[in-house]
Write a structure and sequence with these properties.
Strand order of the largest sheet: 8-3-2-12-11-1-20
Helix content: 25-40%
Strand content: 15-25%
Distance between the termini: 9 Å
Largest sheet: 7 strands, antiparallel
Number of strands: 20
Radius of gyration: 21 Å
Shape: globular
Number of helices: 18
Length: 500
């Protein structure tokens, strides 16, 4: 605990880039942008300038920015053209993905960062990109977590000559401790920071992205006409339940990602379903999670979900390779931003050092198989950047990677935190997930009790990245009315918190 500002992210260098900006007086969004530029260097499987994401920012009035990927407006040829199936190895379990030029959706990452900077930024973009550029030029040490991710998606990172040259320069994938240097990415980020977004929508980088996706559906008009969407957050009460230790009850409000994305609505529905149970209990939570999941599958809209959610949009939900950044600055401005590149489509943009997304190759997204996406449509997601605020000035901002486990990871952290656990303890505590009637649980959760309730189950041997990666920062109101900062990064996904 230190200072009045802090950042939590999925890599030590990602967090440090944002912390340095906070230290020199930059705001929460400045710090988040610097961290996300750096994530593209240090977390290349999860973050890319050719991906997309969602931001929840509050400077007193919370707002959400949808800068997620969009389907191409005018498909060329058949929509399943330009796709290649690969198998990712999750350690005893393999899963099919589709990569190639036909898997590329219109990216929103760069328009999103520049829009956030225009509205909330206080420091020049050239300053915010400095550390990312330096790390890409000089190289970063591959962490054990990043090495494991690379092993899982090895067929993607070695799919093309340029991808192999970056991720397997000696013929084998870089291992933990090896140096990943990316001078082409350094040059691309430097040019973007100096010249602005137009370089990626109709300039040289735009043309290079189109050349890398040749044979697919992405076109120049898609890049030029991509539209950001500012939305009001989904808002719910988050008061303490009956039986909570503290008294009187603290009046809190939850703000999260609204429709058409599903993650925020599912999170709100799980919390609402659980409220009658009081403090966190694993079995009660598993049953509440199961009830919401069953309703979601049956009706396409969970109980308590915002009426703007449309069932056919709920069927097209993308996000798998995700990472998250949470920030609170000294003025109490918050930023929670979750981004994804899918798993990447295998193609490195020539001379730019980053991989295109494969969001149109997500089997989870395409319920009717490869090529079943609809043109000119914003894709939905399970990503759910979230903010909790109270009338005394207390703040909690958090989010998670983890695909379908995002909702259960965030809900468990929030329920434990609301029951009195410190944020760090709530994030480190063992987790479970229920989906389609199947229970997955980390150890130390009374497996006998859970197994009796769920015949279809798997009790894991150790905590796992499967259960998400929640990174959060909290502004705590102390007994004397002063504020302090706490936070935590989820060790399941290399998380780091830095207070400033």
């Amino acid at each position: 605990m230190t200072g009045l500002a802090g950042i939590a992210a999925g890599h030590a260098l990602t967090a440090q880039a944002g912390a340095d900006i906070l230290f020199e007086g930059g705001g929460a969004v400045d710090a988040a942008i610097a961290a996300l530029w750096t994530a593209c260097v240090c977390e290349p499987v999860l973050a890319s300038p050719a991906g997309g994401g969602f931001a929840l920012v509050s400077d007193g009035a919370p707002t959400c920015l949808d800068f997620f990927v969009h389907t191409p407006c005018n498909p060329t040829g058949k929509r399943h053209d330009g796709l290649e199936e690969i198998k990712a190895d999750f350690g005893g379990v393999t899963q099919a993905f589709h990569i190639g030029p036909g898997s590329v959706a219109t990216p929103g990452f760069l328009p999103g960062l520049f829009a956030l900077h225009e509205r909330f930024g206080t420091l020049p973009m050239t300053r915010l990109a400095e550390q990312a550029i330096e790390h890409a030029k000089e190289g970063v040490a591959v962490t054990p977590f990043q090495a494991r991710l690379a092993e899982i998606v090895a067929p993607i990172l070695t799919a093309t000559t340029d991808a192999r040259a970056l991720h397997a320069p000696e013929g084998a994938l870089l291992k933990a401790g090896d140096t990943l240097a990316n001078p082409d990415l350094a040059d691309a980020l430097d040019a973007l920071a100096r010249e602005g977004l137009r370089l990626a929508t109709e300039g040289e980088i735009a043309h290079l992205m189109l050349s890398a996706s040749a044979g697919g559906h992405l076109a120049g008009d898609d890049l030029r006409t991509y539209a950001l969407q500012w939305r009001e957050p989904l808002t719910r009460s988050f008061a303490e339940p009956a039986g909570a230790a503290s008294s009187p009850s603290i009046a809190r409000t939850l703000f999260t990602n609204p429709p058409p994305s599903a993650g925020g609505g599912l999170l709100a529905a799980i919390l609402a379903r659980y409220d009658a149970h009081g403090p966190y209990d694993p079995l009660a939570f598993a049953k509440a999670l199961d009830a919401v999941d069953r309703r979601w599958r049956e009706l396409g809209k969970p109980e308590g979900f915002d009426d703007r959610m449309i069932a056919d949009e709920a069927a097209q939900i993308a996000s798998r390779g995700t990472t998250h950044v949470s920030v609170i600055d000294k003025n109490g401005v918050t930023a929670a931003i979750t981004v994804s590149n899918g798993e990447g489509n295998g193609a490195i943009v020539p001379g730019c050092g980053f991989m295109l997304n494969n969001m149109l190759g997500e089997d989870d997204l395409l319920a009717d198989g490869p090529g079943s996406w609809e043109p000119d449509r914003r894709l939905a997601s399970m990503m759910a950047p979230t903010l909790i605020g109270d009338r005394k000035g207390g703040l909690l901002t958090l989010g998670s990677g983890g695909s379908n486990r995002i909702r259960s990871a965030l809900a468990q952290v929030l329920l434990r935190w609301r029951s009195g656990a410190r944020l760090e303890d709530a994030i480190r505590a063992p987790r479970l997930h229920v989906e389609a009637g199947h229970l997955d649980a980390e150890p130390d959760l009374d497996p006998d009790l859970l197994q009796r309730a769920f015949e279809d189950h798997e009790i894991w041997d150790a905590p796992s990245m499967f259960f998400g990666g929640v990174h959060g920062v909290e502004r705590v109101v102390n007994a004397d009315g002063r504020f302090s900062i706490e936070g935590a990064g989820d060790e399941r996904r290399d998380g780091v918190f830095i207070g400033v």
